[in-house]
Amino acid sequence: xxxxxxxxxxxxxxxxxxxxxxxxxxxxxxxxxxxxxxxxxxxxxxxxxxxxxxxxxxxxxxxxxxxxxxxxxxxxxxxxxxxxxxxxxxxxxxxxxxxxxxxxxxxxxxxxxxxxxxxxxxxxxxxxxxxxxxxxxxxxxxxxxxxxxxxxxxxxxxxxxxxxxxxxxxxxxxxxxxxxxxxxxxxxxxxxxxxxxxxxxxxxxxxxxxxxxxxxxxxxxxxxxxxxxxxxxxxxxxxxxxxxxxxxxxxxxxxxxxxxxxxxxxxxxxxxxxxxxxxxxxxxxxxxxxxxxxxxxxxxxxxxxxxxxxxxxxxxxxxxxxxxxxxxxxxxxxxxxxxxxxxxxxxxxxxxxxxxxxxxxxxxxxxxxxxxxxxxxxxxxxxxxxxxxxxxxxxxxxxxxxxxxxxxxxxxxxxxxxxxxxxx
Length: 424
What we know:
Elements: E1 3-8, H1 9-23, E2 47-51, H2 54-57, H3 61-65, E3 74-76, H4 85-90, H5 100-114, E4 120-126, H6 130-146, E5 151-158, H7 168-182, E6 185-190, H8 191-202, H9 217-232, H10 249-257, E7 265-274, H11 279-287, E8 303-312, H12 315-332, E9 343-348, E10 359-368, H13 371-387, H14 392-397, H15 402-420
Parallel strand pairs: 1-2, 1-4, 2-3, 4-5, 5-6, 6-7, 8-9
Antiparallel strand pairs: 7-10, 8-10
Helix pairs in contact: 1-6, 1-9, 6-7, 7-13, 7-15, 8-9, 11-12, 13-15
């Protein structure tokens, strides 16, 4: 592959751990010339795991011993970042810790040099944590500055709206602003939506109407990893005749669903089925999870572009149903009338989500106006706190300035307005 995979913070590393278990399964029939498309020539994963605390990354030591991970690519600090974006972005001032960014960039440089062709970085992180949001933002900026021709795809997890940290709205505001400025695309996952979708897949219901269903964090991480595998695992269409993957999937994805640089926040959904498949019904199960209206009571959001990735050992059955499936997706996602070609479709005969059985998966990636809701909620809650100076002293203490907040508010409001006007 042409990508380097960078996992930052607790959330980014936990998703990465689940993802690599799916992508490097022994029963996956990889091409002879390219046994693992995510590895360097020496057989080790082109992945870097970084966290300011050792507890999550240390769990990957077993995979170092098995030869999967490169030990120098497991980068840990000794102190957390206190769920504070400014603390994560600017780092500690002590001589022992201030090089966390430098160590990560040095490992990234070595991985880039191991690539025959480096095209970009895929970054995994959350919006709410000090390391994932703060250090993640700083890394996006540093990578963009160092490798200006490479692309950056962010896999971002937004916190529960009910609250995970008192600083999560500030962290989300600043991190989203940095992502808008420095990355090429953002695959956004929201904990509330993931919880509902995972519960539905597991057949669980909330015990009381106003309570969330009980779903483990591991199950949610597995769902995210499954979506990413369905979306980004190499396809035969992007593989050379010699069997070597060109690693085009992340960057072809960006070309397909991010036609405008001002709108780069992407919604992901996935449906899987075993046995006989009816693609129309599988597509219906995927779009069923879409909200019927916005929180403000407005009609469904518009989408600038939609990508469908169908994986099945019966690849030809999807091709027979292709037109009807794409019609259903175009209607459900309300593709904008001014884009003459809003739909793209990829197919492959290997379902990486559940290899080795008669299984089928349909993964949808859409550049959808629902991103405006996330941005507006983040801005509204952060602004309410900002006006009363709530917790701001923790940001001033670690080097943040008023200009950082003002620019973040302006950036997100502008992007939200662009998404809100999609149907005009």
